[in-house]
Amino acid sequence: MAHDAFRLIPLSGHDRGLYETLHRSFPRDMVTKARLLGVFRDIYGLECGADLDKPKRLLLKQLERLHYWCENSTSKIPTSHSMSTLVLNWRRLLCAFRALRYPAQSEEDLFRWCFLVFSSSGYLDESPQATISRQQLYEIFNMLSPNHACSRILNQRIAQADNLLPVSVLVRDTIRFQHMQSLMAQPPLQELFAPASKATHFFHELTSPCIREYLYLARKDAQDKATCQRFLLQYKRRSLRKCMREWLLYVDARHRARQTAIRCLLHLSTYKQANAFENLKEHALQDVAASEIQRVYRGLRGRKLFVSVLATYEAAVSIQRIYRQRGDFLKYLKRLQMQSRFAIKIQRVFRGWRGRVLARKVLLAYFQAEMAKIQADRAAFYATIRDHAARQLQRFCRKCHRHVQEKKADDNSRENRRVELEMQALLDAASRQKQDHKRAVTEYYDTLREQTHAAEARRKIDDKEKQKVTLRRRRREWEEIFRQRDEKAAAKAREKAEKWTQFQADWSTKVESRANLVRAQLQELLLRPTSKEQDAIKADLERRTTQHFKAQR
User: Which residues form a coiled coil (predicted)?
Assistant: First the structure.
């Protein structure tokens, strides 16, 4: 229908437009397949006996292969002999044509045009007093639904949006476009019409399998790239952690070796001081008085106490240095993580922009090609219409000539004319009787349909109220579950804080006990009396300390 051969037949706004012609042809929205194909053949000049060009043959094939029909029989098995049981809503089909012919228009413009199609009669009336029914509202939103799952999602979104309104729209008998706009302004439907990419919305993705497949592949590619980047970052982070762990082990080993060497030198210097003191003691016993010996002994004891206090201070300083080195390393890891995160964010933004640019170029090229095809189809359609008009004029002239000849023949036979008039009167009476019977049957079924629609509306309102009650009950249950979860989390946090306080107290006690033990051992070693066996032990200790220090260097 977008070919240049059919450009003289617009969708609406003209006496020969598609909407105006279909409205004149069908008194109701639901039509059978045979009637719809017959009307389309007459509109587009698709006569069976005539020679058709390629655009008309393609259009005729597409119309015959339409499969979006509703079954209207008890057998539920459409065959070639029961094609009259297939029916279709021609207004909904016209809305689908509008969406396919103008793919770049917004959802609000499309739904406004569809609202005019369902609310107008004969021509599109943009009056603010125009109204539609609730069933027609659902048909407008589901005009492009390819399957039942898509229709179910759209209907659920409509119900959720209606629950958020202060005054329900779906309970109204007549719905205006302002009500429809307020329904579309709610978050459930706004999220549905929100942009999913640079050129498409979630509504396009939901109603078009091609767009959905393309966006799925693009998102899967982006997700795979993000997964690879995450794995690479994890590998780098693990490698860095391993290197830092080796570095910490190396630094810790050097620190322990340095501390061992310092302790050995301290013990060696203490031993030499003690040996010198013993030599000085022997010399004092020989040369100086007892008072001088006591003064020297008291000075040595004071120096020993000072050395013990100094060792305790150095142990505390070492523990503080280890803790501060770990804090510096954690700060370095955090700064490195922030730098990696900003780099990943910049790469993601750049790659997403580049993909959107490529997708926009492909979509613009496709739209330009489709518009060129539409212009070509319209040009061919104008030429076809001119030829069809010429053939209709010739046919009309031949018909008039044939009618004149028949009239002359009828004038020659008055008896035949009288019989013909009697037969025509009988046919008119039968036609009037048939029309009266059809009108009575139609009124009866219209009344029955209105009663059925009223019962269905009441049932839907009851179901909606039941759904609201169920939602409130579930909301209360979820609030109770969340409250219990918060209480459990608070209890775990308190237990964790108590364990951490106990651990700090135990650690402080352990460090203090170790420092007291080292101080006691040093005092015991320094205050031990001198003997030959002790000299041998001290000499052996000095030799092993020297060898260990050389090995560590």
Answer: 416-481
Beta strands 30-32 and 86-89, pairing class: antiparallel
Q: What is the pTM of this model?
A: 0.39
Identify any residues that bridge with 377 across adjacent strands, giving them in sequence order.
Answer: 4
What is the per-residue pLDDT for 552?
Answer: 52
Give the whole-angstrom CA distance, residue 524 versus residue 327.
37
Q: Tell me if 16 is assigned to some domain.
A: yes
- Among 16-30, 236-250, 421-435, 497-511, which stretch is predicted with the lowest mean pLDDT? 16-30
Task: Give me the helix-helix angle, 33-44 and 54-64, nearest 10°.
Answer: 170
| Sign of the alpha-carbon dihedral angle for 288, 289, 292, 296 | positive
Strand duo 30-32 + 70-71: pairing: unpaired
Q: What is the DSSP secondary structure assignment for residue 84, as one 8-state letter? A: G
- DSSP structure string for 341-379: HHHHHHHHHHHHHHHHHHHHHHHHHHHHHHHHHHHHHHH
Q: Where are the alpha helices (DSSP H) in 48-106?
A: 54-64, 90-101
**CA 152/CA 456 separation, integer angstroms:** 18
Number of domains in the chain: 1
Residues 464-487: b if buried by 16+ CB within 10 A, e if exposed: eeeeeeeeeeeeeeeeeeeeeeee
- Measured between alpha carbons, how far is 514 from 318 in angstroms, rounded to an integer? 14
Cα separation, 114 vs 120, whole angstroms: 10
Domain that holds residue 47: 1-103
* pLDDT the model gives residue 500: 93
Q: Strand pairing partners for 89?
A: 30
Q: State the Cα–Cα distance between residues 473 and 469, nearest whole angstrom.
A: 6
Residue type, 439: R
Distance CA 33, CA 86 (A): 6
Q: Which is it for the CA torsion 358, 364, 366, 368, positive or negative?
A: negative
Q: What is the mean pLDDT of residues 409-427?
A: 80
Asked, for residue 259, whether it belongs to a domain, the answer is no
Among residues 149, 163, 158, the alpha carbon closest in space to that of 111 is found at: 158
Cβ neighbours of 154 (radius 10 Å)? 20
Positive or negative, the CA dihedral 46, 48, 53, 58 is positive
DSSP state of 128: T
Which amino acid is present at 39? V
Length of the chain as a residue count: 553
Closest CA to 388 of 11, 42, 33: 42
- Asked if residue 129 belongs to a domain, the reply is no
CA–CA gap between residue 417 and residue 414 (Å, rounded): 5
Any domain includes 64: yes
Q: Per-residue confidence at 331, pLDDT binned at 50, 70, 90?
A: confident
